[in-house]
Every structure is written in C-alpha cells, then in structure tokens.
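pasting for ref
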Amino acid sequence: MDAVAACNSGHLGLPLGDAEIGAVLFGHSLKFNPEDPKWINRDRFVLSAGHGSMFLYSWLHLSGYDLSLQELKNFRKLHSKTPGHPESHETPGVECTTGPLGQGVANSVGMAMAAKMAEARFNTDEYTLFNHHIVCLCGDGCMQEGISSEACSLAARQGLDNLILIYDSNDVTLDAAASKTQCENTAERFDAYGFDVETIDGNSMQEFLQVYNKAKSNQNSKPKLIIAKTLIGKGIPEVAGTSKAHGEAGAKFVENARKALGLPEEKFYVSEEVHNYFAQKKQERVKAYNEWKNLFAEWQQANPELAKELQDGIDHSVPDNLLSKIPEFPVDSQLATRVSGGKALNAIASQMPLVISGSADLHGSTKNYIDNGGDFDRDCRTGRNIYFGVREHAMGGIVNGFGYYGIFRASGATFLVFSDYMRPSIRLAALAQLPVFFIFTHDSVGVGEDGPTHEPVEHVSSLRLIPNLDVIRPADAEETAGAFVAAIEKINGPTALILSRQDVPTLSEIPVSDRRNGVLKGAYIAKKETAKLEQIIIATGSELQHAIAAAKELGNGTRVVSMPCFERFDRQPKNYQESVLPTYCKKRIAIEAGATGLWYRYVGSEGKIIGIDHFGLSAPGAQIMKEFGITANAIIQEIKSL
C-alpha cells in the first residue's frame, strides 16, 4: 500500500488480495536460495499477472534477495530495481518478464517442460539433481487471454505434473466484474484439459497450504490448477471486491486502511518479528541449498561428461569453429533456404546436445526436425523435437520459458505470415534478452499458389522494428549456415531466421567463407566492382541472385552488397560499415520482396527501392515475382533512372 500510495501509480488489488498466498509460498513452501537466485534446482515462481508486481517485490525483499527497502520505496521510479511490471534482467528473483497477460502462464509451461527434460537428462539412479516445481500465479485476465488456453491444453497433453497454476479468481477485471465478459466454469474446462483442479478460499492460509502440499506430492502426470477465490483489494473496504481495487484507486484510502489494519504510522513498516522470521527461514533455505551443493559435487565427480554438458548449457557455451562443423553445400545445388536451414540445424545439433527445436504443426514444411533426436513426450522426456500443435502464440511463450530456464537452446518454427500470432512473445524475448531463436519459413510472395493470406509482405520489416531482435534473411545455403550459427552465438537476445519456401541457387561465384562469415557481420560485399565504384545494389534473401545478375549487365563499376541482417550490420564498427557502403557513393538501389520503408536508411533519399508495398496474388511464385518486378531487369531499369 505504501509503495503504490507514494507514487500514486501501480496496482493494489492483487498484492492485497493474494497476501495470504504470498505468505505461504515465500514464508513457508517455496524452495530457493536468495543468495544464489539462479540456483538450478530452485522452485520457479512466475507472476503472470505482472501488474501486481509489488506483491513480488515485497516478498523478494522480505526473503532476503538483493532488493533493499529503498528499492521498494523507489517503486516505478527511474532506474530502480522495481519497475512497474517485473523484468527478469532488472530484479534478482524475478523469473520472467511479465505484464502482457497470459505470457507468464505459457512461460511456466515452457519451464515445466525444460525441468522435465533436465530431470531425464541429468538425474541418475544415484543422484537427483532436479526435483523442483514451477509455480505460476495468474488472474482472470490471464485466463481470458488465448495464449493461456493454448499453453494449458498442451501442458495437460504433456502430463506436466511439476506445474502448479494458482488462479487468483477474484471475479473482477479492470473495467468491471468478470461476469460482464465471462460465464464459463473454469474448473470444468481445466478438468477437461486434463488438470487436477481444486477450488479453495484463497484468503485462508491453512486451506491454501493444504492444497498446495497436495499438488506438490501428487505426481500423477497431471498439471495442477488451484482456483483461489480471493477478495481483490482486501484491507481497503472502500474499493475491495470491485474493479476500482485493480489499480491505484484505493491509494487515497490507504491511511484509513493502515489504521483499520492496526499498522503503525511509520511507512514501509516491517516488524522485528517478521524480519526475524524471514532471517530464520533464509538460514533453513541456505542449509538445504548447501546439502544440495554437496550432492551436486558428488554427482559431478561421478558423471564428468554430464557435468560438462550441464555447465555448457548454463554458460550458453558454443563450440569453437561451429561454422566449420556444417558441411559445405554442393556448388550447383538449388535448395530452399528452409531445406538448407534444416541441414544446418542438424549439423549444429550434432555438436550441441542441448539444442532443441519445435514447430507449430509444420515440421514437414519448416524442415527444422532434429534427426534421431526423438520427440519430447510423456514417455520420452529427452526428446529434442517438440510438437506444439497449431498454437503459435503458446509456442513463442513456451520457447521463452526454455530461455528463462537457462539450460537448453530452444527454437520454434512456423510460416512467416503467422509470426503475427506470436509477436507479443517475440517482443518479450527481445526485452528479456533471451537466447532463443524463431524459424520463419515461406518468407515472401514466393509462397505462390496459397495466395495473399499466406504471403508475407510487411512481416520482415515489422520484425526489424523490435529492438534487440536480430532478423536474418539469408540468400542461399551457405548464408543460411551462417545465419543459424549467428542465432546460436547470440546469447543476449533472440534471433528470427527468415527462410524461403522456393528453391534458390547456391551463389557459388561468392566464396563460401565470404557468405558464411558475411552473415555474422550483417552485410558484406557479394560482388566487388572492378573499376571505379559508380553504383551499389543491396539485396537480401532470394533477391540477391537478381542483384548479381543485374550487376553483370551494368558493368564493372557496380558493387553488390548482401545485407541479410540490418541489426548485425548496424553493430559493426563504423570503418567496416564504410568499407561496405561508402558514403560517397550515393547511387544506390535496394531490392527485397517485401515492404520498402526501412530501406531508405541504407539507400538514402537519392536512392531507390524495389519491393512490394501491397498484398500478393495466388499464382506460381516465379510468376508473382515477375508480375511485381522482383527481377534483374527491373534493377537494371531502375538504376539507370537514377
């Protein structure tokens, strides 16, 4: 109450309504060590209803995390560790960046899957390293979001009995009572999914503790849902139980509430008794942690190879010379980059056993199946291929959950046009700096006969607008090899790989090393002029072949630049950027089978762009490309007009 009142901003309803749940979890039941927030065998607590962030910050402070009382007083202030919604890279003890409702539910499902994988891969008959739970607190808003339904349906199918979902069912949303927008029986819905469901008084600590302990002990291949009926804004009678309690509306009644609750006048007051209780609890947790550390040391000595594999996963280690582990492609091959991408992924997976991949019911089209990797399922927890079903948004959130878990390198695949279904998850991966990657195939109007509903035109540019997301659109098989290595090597954020459905030629006139390493730098000279530089053609993906063909016709003063990744190129030193795109050469043209707007930063106001700023057509892909002027001849005509 004091934190929200101090800044007159924030959300009082959940922290007050769920106070008893927090007391049981952080004051009694959760397994963690605040001195080692990344302990691999900790229970993960996810606040999917991230607007209630002061709930989490309060308990983290009391539990002994590096989150001072002053940081609580700085709630929502500039550069504090207590931002308005939880951010995993800002605050110790925050497992997920949440706030967009439902994302934390999907993240928790991903964590629970990762935990099952870790148990199967690293636990032995003699040693149990992993035996923790994923606990997620969500609200009515989370339950209404479609991503939660997608993720929970899959969680039940996968039998994730290490997942405990606590539904803060206070029957209130921001605008009105929840009955205004829902009339379902949530318990019956989740029972139909295949969850164990219990409904309790969420403001009773004893009742919650009893059901929570039951959920932890019941390993029956079913995830758990605890429906906790709570009073939103409990303790502030003027707003409790109403939609006004959701946000800061109760802040003006805080003084009266403090008196009614018997609190002293001192703001941000914590009694000595509470401090002593949590100090003792911290000692108990550290003791249990040290016992686990002793077990871990014995396991390391007995299983040195497994220990190295686990540490490599924790460190996000990448083998030296990973590019060289991907065999070169035949010089005369015609391969869709989705196909060469599958080959590159398999070569990487053979070197990195913790690389996993999944697809939203499109493995046969996205080509990202890891051969001989097995399918993750109830009876095969070591499987490296995940079948997400037609659930793109949940796939994004679940892949992010693997990223938060921190051991496996996860990816998910679908058609590029469906990236919009999962965009919030992609954005959060970038914000939270997660080392995951997304594989998007069928990258342009080259999709062809499926028509404009399946032909992305704005999507590549749209993804490029997301900060800290590398978007890579390779031109041929060798550039694709470089793109996959780039995705693996980036550990401070996600990568989107944009791959073609149609076959493209292997550009053998460009040395293999130039194509592979050029992708790592974002852009490189694919064809260098042999006379005074007069003009530059810039291209990505399947259009690079046309740029090279046009350059041959335009003469010796023409340079071709392949620019598969804007973001990587922009991070290069200025001298490298200048060596590729010298500022004195103003005669520039760019070609890409998609939206044109972002290209002006590279061609300048005097340059031209060949692209597609309208929807596609239903016809063979090559015919559509010609119809829309994505050809070498179009480049020649446009550059002559400059």
